[in-house]
Amino acid sequence: MFDADDLPAFEPPEFDEHPDGDDVERPPLRGTTSPPAGLHDVDWAALEDAYGTAAETPWFIEALTSDDGGDRNFGVYGLYSATTHQGSVYTASEAAIPFLAELVRQDNTLALLFLARIAAGETHFVARPDDVGKATSEYAGAVAEFAPDVEAMWARTGDDEALRLLVLLGREPEELPALTPDATAGLCLAHGFLAARDNVVTSGSARSTDARVEHVAAARDLMTHSPSLYVRGAAAACVVYSGFADDHSLALLHHLAQGEYPVHDVWTGDLAELAASAWTFGTDDDGLLTAPNNSLPNLHTRLLERMARQFRPSDRVYRPLAPEELTDAQRTTLETALRASPETITGSDVDHLWIDVPGTVAAAHRLLGTSTGELSRRTSRGLLWFVLENGLLARDDRQSALAALAEVDAWTALGEVFAARRPNGTEESITLTVRRLHGEDAATLALCSVFADALAHHLPQAEAFLAEWLPKVSEVDGYDLAFAVPGQRIGTALAALARSGGLPARFQPMVKPYHRFPEYSTVPLPLLRELEDSRLTDG
User: Fold this and answer.
1) Among 24-33, 39-48, 188-197, whose mean pLDDT is lowest?
2) Enclosing H/E stretch for 420
3) Are 82 and 57 in contact (CB under 8 A)?
4) Rounded to an integer, what distance in angstroms lies between the CA atom of residue 295 and that of residue 277?
5) Which of residues 497 and 12 earns the better pLDDT score?
6) Could you tell me if 178 and 228 are in contact, meaning their C-beta atoms sit under 8 angstroms apart?
7) Rounded to the nearest 10 degrees, what angle do helices 299-310 and 328-340 cross at?
8) Pick from 513, 395, 393, 512: which is nearest to 441 by CA?
9) Where is the composition biased (Acidic residues) (predicted)?
């Protein structure tokens, strides 16, 4: 199986004039090729790929037909890097579809692979049924028009890439079992993926309907009697994905997840990973926590799965749960994570990023009610942390934030929001949950700005803080070099003084970039500009 991760960086080749002297620039293909009819009649230069004009695309496609291995590698590198770059598609990708389909009719596996990439992006990341819905591009429908050609290739060759593409396009595979163990295992997984769709099966749940059941008896028989561990594991996954998880299938999958069983197919490179993924999908919420803490699936993986089920999707903006909304199951999940696997909260992978779960250890403790401090104080607008997260950060409600901060010690609260990342350190991070479309920069600006206004009644504390850090600031060329100073709090304190009648002259030298390049400042650039303008005005 072709693995794009093994490819070196793609470098477009030098084009030469054709030796026949027809004044057409061609890449240096060395072998004999048989390009699809009409390939060079398309105005490829008017289309786009990942690097701009797609003039080279027809040569990449033609190179797939060469009898020279170097030519084929040239085509693979080109199509991967330019036409299906990191799972993205372009106008050149759409134009390539009918020509790649023509090569599929000639049983060209490389062409098949790129049809799959155009239809489903990074197809090698599809490992379980709920990945399938994510793996469709805007050109999936155009590829689906040629599904009969892919199915015919599968029937002729048994190519497992053809089988997976059929599944991603929603086509039914052949019956079970197939002629070889690998083909049978692939068919088991294909049936399971499609049954998950047809039976409306979601992770941790039984089937919602019994629309697709004709394969289940055969899968159960293979799970029990096949001499191949690979087939047994794939059959158990098929049963689970079809919505019929039981103690037998889950026990087999959990056992296989603990071993080392290298396999080689389009769905996975290791049977243990396949088994762990299927077990995690089919196990209910309680089972995810009560299972033995083996290496696969480990507690971190199981907690991520449990969080994804229990916390609502947040789209692009984090919407914090209020403590009264927290369910017993959610509480158990967070308490287990804090006790045994805090990286589940602080280091969620991208698949689990956009759910409404606290994103820091401090935020999780606040939601659970197990923390103290100003951010946990209840104000007339609600708990201060909730007002800041739900009001200021999620809805840009400055008035509510200012009203709540007026009822607490805003200076102390500022120190709780921007806390040292390491004990006795000065590098600060936000302890609230920050999940906005543009990352932490917008949140940092909102917090620094609203606290600068809220500190109008805490100016003596702000001045004392700045006086303490003035000698240190004078020693460094850019405040955050080696993270030598708490930049966010210094910037906020300076802004508070500037907005409250003018920045005292002794603190004006502190207004300089918090990095040798201002755009990388730990204090947002708009606030730096405001401070610079204030210094020039006062000067």
Assistant:
1) 24-33
2) strand 418-420
3) yes
4) 13
5) 497
6) no
7) 150
8) 393
9) 1-23
State which amino acid sits at residue 216: V
pLDDT, tens digit (0-9, with 9 covering 90-100), for 86-124: 878 999 999 999 999 999 999 999 999 899 889 887 765
DSSP code at position 13 = P
Q: Which residues contact 72 (CB under 8 A, 6 or more apart)?
A: 63, 64, 66, 110
CA 78/CA 400 separation, integer angstroms: 54
Task: With beta carbons less than 8 A apart as the criterion, state whether 473 and 484 touch.
Answer: no
Q: Quick check: 491 and 448 in contact, CB under 8 A?
A: yes
**pLDDT per position as a tens digit, 151-163:** 999 888 888 888 8
Long-range contacts of 350-355 (CB under 8 A, 24+ apart): 351/304, 351/308, 352/304, 352/307, 352/308, 353/435, 354/313, 354/314, 354/315, 354/316, 354/435, 355/307, 355/308, 355/311, 355/312, 355/313, 355/314
Cβ within 8 Å of residue 496, ≥6 positions away:
451, 452, 453, 455, 456, 458, 459, 462
* 428 sits in which H/E element: strand 428-430
The predicted model scores a pTM of: 0.79
DSSP states of 21-65 as a string?
--S-EE----S---PPTTGGGS-GGGSEETTEE-TTHHHHHHHTT
* Selection from 302, 220, 294 nearest residue 257 by Cα: 294
Q: How far is CA 141 from the centre of its chain?
A: 24
Here the tokens at position 327 are: 């369910």
CA 217 to chain centre: 36
Confidence of residue 484 (pLDDT cuts 50, 70, 90): confident
- SS3 track for 280-332: HHHCCHHHHHHCCCCCCCCHHHHHHHHHHHHCCECCCCCCCCCHHHCCHHHHH
